[in-house]
Amino acid sequence: MKTNAVFVFSEDQLGYKFSETHPFNQKRLTLTVDLLKEMNALSPSDIVVPRIATDEELSLVHDPGYIEIVKKASLEKSETTNYESYGIGTEDTPIFPHMHEASASLVGGTLTAVDYVMEGKSVHALNIGGGLHHGFKGRASGFCVYNDSSVAIKYMQLKYNARVLYIDTDAHHGDGVQWSFYDDPNVCTISIHETGRYLFPGTGNITERGTGEGYGTSFNFPIDAFTEDESFLEIYRTALREIVESFKPDVILSQNGADAHYFDPLTHLYGTMNIYREIPKLAHELAHQYCDGRWIAVGGGGYDIWRVVPRAWSLLWMEMNDIKTPEGNLPKAWLDRWSKESPVPFIPTWMDPSPLYEPIPRKAEITEKNKQMLEKALYALRNQQSYKNHQ
């Protein structure tokens, strides 16, 4: 019997851990799962244990030689290998024991989610342990060893002959996924992110539109630092509706980084919990409108693991299951359980208090700048649609 949504998770996903002080902290998975259980929004029957991706599956995107390097680094920090040339052993992506197995488990989680949706066992699937969008063919980058979304997209193409729309609302540009399919006309990538003028990885300009047969299937919306909810959502809603209507995907894969929030320590955007309520709503609607409901979602960035990520990813799962957005306070038992450990005071409510921050003096200027960027980014698409309509 087909279920509405499955939640891919196991304690093994917590093994993807660089160090005690690294900002990428998988404790956010534990916090999210615990919050959902306190809300009676997640039951044992919803949870599916992820499998580990095979070397053959990883090789759909990653060089076999790179996979072997990751395996070697997982076992020993050898002085004879220049690991940094492969992006590992760096400050961003340090080597840790069993790194290959932990990374392959996160990829396997997204592949598990894919199979549930594409084989018709579930309409939607969520793997919050995934979303490692900076991994490249032969190099780790930005906390990402393997790129689960890229592997999953290639897997969907080969196994299910799917036309895939990838939506990335992480504050950092989804560079690894974009470059993996830059010349592929059957994969459309959309990334809304803080401009690379201020933030890693420095890419994601509106001029990055694809190449060869894939030209016109890469879309980037670099928003200005200090962008607030209204401007973010205007870009998201306008761009997504127009692009989906043009591309007509078979399945949607969304990356749901939760680092565009005002509290995030690594970015400069001024989002509130409102965007994390609204982002999945439109993805959900369009999945049913164009893809018979097929929607796979993964996690991503998010470095305020106490005040932001658990609420954001809980709202994502609730939207997948048509659970009404909760109002009022978070569960007292959850707040009591974790407040002793949290280094910051919790926001006790589902939505953020208003105002959350002092007014931005440049709000009108930032909003107008973002609006102009949106128009430029969609200009070619609109011209193409106009040309088609007159044929």
What topology, given as strand order, has the largest sheet? 2-1-3-8-7-4-5-6
Determine the CATH topology. Arginase, Chain A
Please describe the biggest sheet, giving its number of strands, its sense, and whether it closes into a barrel: 8 strands, parallel
Strand % is 5-15%
Q: In terms of structural class, how would the helical and strand content be classed?
A: alpha/beta
Structural shape: globular
In a few lines, what is going on in this structure?
The protein has 391 residues and is α/β, with parallel strands linked by helices. It has helices spanning 27-38, 55-58, 64-75, 99-118, 148-160, 175-180, 229-247, 273-290, 309-320, 332-339, 363-389; strands at residues 3-8, 47-48, 122-127, 164-168, 187-194, 218-223, 251-255, 295-298.
How is this structure best described in words?
The protein is of the alpha/beta class and about 400 residues long. The protein has a single domain, classed as Arginase, Chain A, CATH 3.40.800.20. Helix content is about 40%, strand content about 10%. An eight-stranded parallel sheet has the order 2-1-3-8-7-4-5-6, with helices on both faces. The N and C termini lie far apart (about 45 Å). About 50% of the residues are buried. The mean pLDDT is about 95.
Keywords:
single chain, 391 residues, alpha/beta, Arginase, Chain A, eight-stranded parallel β-sheet, Acetoin utilization protein AcuC, Ureohydrolase_dom_sf
